[in-house]
Design a protein that fits this description.
single chain, 384 residues, mainly alpha, 3-stranded antiparallel beta sheet, two-stranded parallel sheet, 14 helices, 48% helix, elongated
Length: 384
Amino acid sequence: MASESLQQHQRFLAAVLNTAHEPLDAEERAMARIKFYRIIDRYSKRKRDGSKYKRHLLIRYTYEYALSEESRIHFLQTFYQALELSIDGEGRVNLDDKEQADKLWLKISAFADFLVDNFYLPLSLLLVKASARRAPLPTLMSQPAVPDLITDPREDCLTRDRHRCIITQAFDFDEAVSRHKQYADEAKDDEERSLFKGGNHFLHLEAAPVLPHSLAEIGSSPSELSRTKKLTLEILNIFDNGIQNLINECVGKPRNAMTLTKNYHHMFGEFEFYFTRLDGPNDPPHTYKIDNFLSSPMRKELPVTRTFYTEADGKPIDPPEPRFLALRRSLAHVLYLSSAGQYIDELLKKLKENPADEDGSTELGLFAQLRLDGWCPATNTERQ
């Protein structure tokens, strides 16, 4: 059994790392989609097996929420290779045969778990770590390979967003204190409106990264990347082909950040809300509807529509990268619709409460590997 599991894992690895798929013509693409839905729909009728998330839906929505047709076809080719299936009639599985159908379901379940363990979970860990600390975004000025990085991304982000949370419109507390010291009650906000006479509320604001800056490969050769990091990056590129190059370009810059309160930064890290770009004829550029899946008194400001600025102090400055926000939206939907987000939240809670618990749970080996690869937060012992 261990040998079979290892072989299966190696097959999944080979499928994910395969970047040399043969291009498909229109007929082959249509056939690939039809066969995919026939397989997934077959298992949508399956009785719940006690799993903590809906594996067939994770597979389905990972495909459907990929950000381009090229990315969706890439995922289908990865799916078929991982499951040892062909797009054409060869290697056909008779889904009406219970034994064959059950064997295929085991492969699908294992592939879904592979995606969670090597992509969705590590990415969630990175975002939780990023939202747990209040610190300026890294400038990476020590990296000689990074051209033209700004000197203080947090300050540039706050300036672009007019020192206000993009959701609540709360004004930055520290900036308000500074302006009050200089101008007293006559202080104004960034748009020349009264700061202390207009019902503003003031909170400490943070520059929240849209994607974790540690996903960037800057300063690291492929041989230096950990096993899970390399896998995560490859799956990320399946989701949005070529996005890794854009991450490297935008790390430590306002294109990968927005101003949020601490609470909303934390919720953003847990995929509790998302941005949908509005492209109507009357919508200004870089306008988004910000929404969540479940209404909550803790998110009473949502849904809301906001437009990002593209200049500050008369100088152009980049808004958050639209592809990053689109990717975050896709990931949030996959995690919510498949219940994998809730499952990951439970894993992270277990890791936080018992970081060194050796109770023989199935997650122990996964936690150990993630910690070795630098994904997991430090334990209490490591912080001392």
